[in-house]
Design goal:
The protein is mostly beta strands. It has 1 helix and 16 strands. It has a 16-stranded antiparallel β-sheet with strand order 1-2-3-4-5-6-7-8-9-10-11-12-13-14-15-16, with helices on one face. A hairpin with a 5-residue loop joins strand 9 and strand 10. The chain starts with 24 loop residues before the first helix and ends in a 27-residue tail after the last strand. Pfam families: MORN. This is MORN repeat containing 1.
């Protein structure tokens, strides 16, 4: 009956291959200094001792403009806009471990609008800040569930809609990647719960002490239990079928 959290716990959080790009500015500057006097300008290719390379535009000896950069250490490859050796503007990052990002970057970090596909094939479209999903965005999970709404530092937080692959739909408030606050769940079995959620659990208020099954005395906010919202990814919602005994479905 307890509600467990979604595939976000298992997958698309930025891993090593989607984190901040390895610092290379010092190495690039040291290599460029050997021929900066010639003011390398236009198209060119730069090979580094560790096997990394850059091919593209130079401006007054600096890596600035359109180009392609490969990091030997991580195996990642970026194609797009650069400013002073850093990916900045619009581009495509392909990760050796799988997945890719296409969109806006600032100082090598995902910043602005973009599209991120992780190694498991889960897809996010929307806003990024400081390399994390932040703002408005939409994500499709590998099990077919789909979330659209607010994000805060890679977690679903604010208002959002989760459409489960089985047809169940939750719409309402989120906090820390869980249903939290006012929201409604339309279950695939036909039952609907509207009301308060706390830490992923549907809650009801008992205005006075009341006797619950098995002789438990309840008071205040209590879980709606049993209920059909258990045992699924995205935010648990249970199997499609009859509601648990004792759940009113209203």
């Amino acid at each position: 009956g307890s509600v467990q959290m979604s595939p976000l716990r298992k997958a698309p959080h930025p891993r090593a291959h989607t984190s901040t790009l390895p610092p290379t500015r010092t190495l690039l500057s040291r290599t460029l200094r050997e021929w900066r006097g010639s003011r390398k300008h236009g198209q060119g290719k730069l090979l580094l001792k560790d096997g990394s390379y850059y091919e593209g535009e130079f401006v007054d000896g600096e890596i600035t403009g359109e180009g392609c950069r490969h990091w030997a250490l991580t195996g990642n490859t970026y194609t797009g806009q650069f400013v002073l050796g850093e990916p900045q503007g619009h581009g495509v990052m392909k990760y050796k471990a799988g997945g890719r990002y296409e969109g806006e970057l600032s100082c090598s970090l995902r910043e602005g609008q973009g599209n991120l596909v992780d190694a498991d094939g889960q897809v996010y479209w929307g806003s990024f800040h400081d390399n994390k999903r932040h703002g408005q965005g939409r994500m499709v999970f590998r099990n077919g569930d789909e979330y659209e709404g607010d994000w805060v530092r890679d977690q679903r937080q604010g208002h959002g809609i989760l459409r489960h692959a089985d047809g169940s739909i939750y719409e309402g408030r989120w906090h820390g990647d869980m249903f939290s606050g006012q929201g409604s769940m339309a279950h695939c079995s036909g039952g609907v719960y509207r009301g308060l959620w706390i830490d992923g659990h549907p809650m009801r208020r008992c205005p006075r002490p009341c006797r619950w099954p098995r002789g438990v005395l309840l008071w205040g906010h209590v879980w709606v239990w049993p209920c059909p919202f258990s045992g699924g990814p995205g935010q648990s919602r249970g199997r499609c079928g009859p509601s648990g005994a004792g759940w009113s479905g209203t």
